[in-house]
Design a protein that fits this description.
By secondary structure, the protein is mostly beta strands. The chain has a single domain, classed as Jelly Rolls (Sandwich). The chain has two helices and twelve strands. The strands form two sheets. Strands 2, 3, 6, 7, 8, 9, 10, 11 and 12 form a nine-stranded antiparallel sheet that branches. Strands 1-4-5 form a three-stranded antiparallel sheet, with no helix packed on it. The chain binds dtdp-4-keto-L-rhamnose. Dtdp-4-keto-L-rhamnose binds next to strand 6, strand 7 and strand 11. GO terms for molecular function: dTDP-4-dehydrorhamnose 3,5-epimerase activity. Homodimer. It catalyses: dTDP-4-dehydro-6-deoxy-alpha-D-glucose = dTDP-4-dehydro-beta-L-rhamnose.
Length: about 190
């Protein structure tokens, strides 16, 4: 069985759910989740600068992160386990500015989420998971930024019942700004 790449653009323009190429046979799966050429054919000029992985326990929330100035587009895939992945449109001129969308990503479904530049990104870990990121810009620690996971304006409906309401946050993520504070600091024209 062969499944070709499939790209579905979301209503937050520029963001996509992407089904990878999968060749399944009696040995298991062959999965290709990035091809510069195929991405270009589908309108995504995604230059690859860094790839990294996180492993997380059930209940971990990695909050709504982004990188200022040196904006990073990210192709995010849950390799094993299951997560509830959230993107937030932080482009102040966008009709969907300040809107969030959530998607279940899992090792079984194999889909990637394409997170464009000027978006926030975070997730809740439903089952112990390994998540991969293919980034269009390298990491700059001093430009690393984020918004609190439980922001009162964003009102993200995290499925906390699936983790028995027990969450694990980094010290950094316990002290992030609100969306309102972030908006007060926006200087870009995008
Ligand atoms: C993200 C990142 C972190 N680091 C370092 C900084 C720190 O010492 C350690 C852990 O970093 P953090 O606590 O920021 O990791 P984490 O909270 O997992 O941050 C990630 O969250 C998700 C939601 C994203 O979208 C990612 O882009 C990234 O922001 O790794 C790098 O060296 N390179 C990187 O690209």
């Amino acid at each position: 069985m062969i499944q070709q790449f499939q790209f579905e653009e979301l209503d937050l323009k520029g963001a996509y759910i992407i089904k990878p190429f999968v060749a399944k046979d009696e040995r298991g799966d062959f999965i290709k989740d990035y091809s510069e050429e195929v991405f270009k054919e589908n309108g995504l000029d995604h230059e690859l600068k860094e790839v990294f992985y996180t492993s997380s326990e059930k209940g971990v929330i990695r909050a709504i992160h982004f990188q200022r100035v040196k904006e990073q587009a990210k192709l995010v895939r849950c390799l094993t386990g299951k997560i509830f992945d959230v993107i937030v449109d932080l482009r102040k001129t966008s009709p969907t500015f300040g809107k969030w969308r959530g998607f279940y990503l899992s090792g079984d479904r194999k889909e990637s989420l394409y997170v464009p530049e000027h978006f926030g990104h975070g997730y809740l870990v439903i089952e112990p998971s390994i998540v991969s990121y293919k980034c269009s810009e390298k990491f700059y620690g001093d430009l690393d930024d984020g918004i609190m996971w439980n922001d009162p304006d964003l009102r993200i409906s995290w499925p906390l019942d699936l983790v028995d309401n027990k969450i694990i946050l980094s010290e950094k993520d316990k002290n992030l700004q609100s969306l309102g504070e972030f908006i007060g600091k926006i200087t870009t024209s995008i």
